[in-house]
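JOB MANIFEST
job_type = single_chain_structure
chain_count = 1
residues = 399
[input]
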Amino acid sequence: MTPTDDEDWLYRRGHYADGPGQQPAPPPHEPPAQYGGPTPVGHYGQQPPSGPPAYGPPPTASTHRTVPTPPPARPAAPPLPPARASGRRGRVLRWVVALLLAYLVVIPLVTWPFMPRVDADPGGDRPADTPGHVFVLAGSDSREGLSEEEQKRLGTGSDAGRRTDTIMLLYVPPAGRAALISIPRDSYVPIPGHGRNKINAAYAIGGPALLVDTVEENTGLRVDGFAEIGFGGFANVVDAVGGIEMCPEKAINDPLSNLDIPAGCQLMDGPTALGYVRMRKLDPEGDLGRAKRQREMIGALAKKSLSPMTIVVPPRWFGLNWSLSRGITVGEGTGPGELLGLAQGGLRIATGQGDTLMVPIGDRDAQTQAGSSVLWDEKRAAALFDAMARGEGDLSAYA
């Protein structure tokens, strides 16, 4: 800078003069501060106020301290699409259902071959097929297969032969309520080829086949299956489900039935339950009262057999099916389809979707050639059987 320029700059003359509203210009050989030159000095050597400059662009990011940017977080796995998640849950559910069905079905199929068979086909002309299913259920007094110790424990005695203490019809309509219908064993009816007699004589004369034939002739219904259970089989089935709760109104002490129990609800084991359904001498209604208790016991047994606590516990479910396979005798023509219908009827009875009743009675103590007998109310009994032949789903009106 020349001396003249120094003086002009010092005294603000010439091109160094402050114009109105203008900032002093920097010396020509020094670039303005915003372009990288030294910080300008204010009037009389004072520093300009701090803060952003009054003119020019704001400081760039390069004039500030750079803060390191943290690395980006690892992205989370994207959720499964709704359709894919739903499909996976559906497959799991199908597997669970398949395993449950296999568990429920395989165990009965494994024990099925051990079930005894008997000829229960009456042959000859039979009634036409009707809607639904009709099964003959017989409870015999057979001691077959029982040791002396078991006969003593059950209080059955050692009488030989086989007689029917219990005769029932299990009716399963195509839809609606099932029905468990007692036929009093002293019912005085025609027996094909043997005149008139008490219905239990049909079993004593010709076994299951003649009993089924007698039922068909007197009801007009086609029988789809036959099942029989003896003393030992019944007691074992009751024990297999852990006992049955029954509620006698009065205390019972009957040595003939090996029964000594108090009044009120109680859990009965196999021998006690057997005595309870056998006892009739002390029952005011005799055989009809016994038939009523038998229906109550069968309903309670079906309910306990199909309860969740029986089904979901493998030892109990297997034990029940094993006891049934060893204690129940079925007709030779009774296959898996008939057993499925039998199980369906038992399920309806157990879940309250069924009724228990008796063939309508006209005379409870009729004197016949066979002694004291039971006569049906022919008109009401015919109406009941006609309703079954039509496949009606509610028989309560015919009780």
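[summary]
Confidence is low (pLDDT under 50) at residues 30-37, 39-46.
The chain has one domain: 119-398.
exit_status = 0
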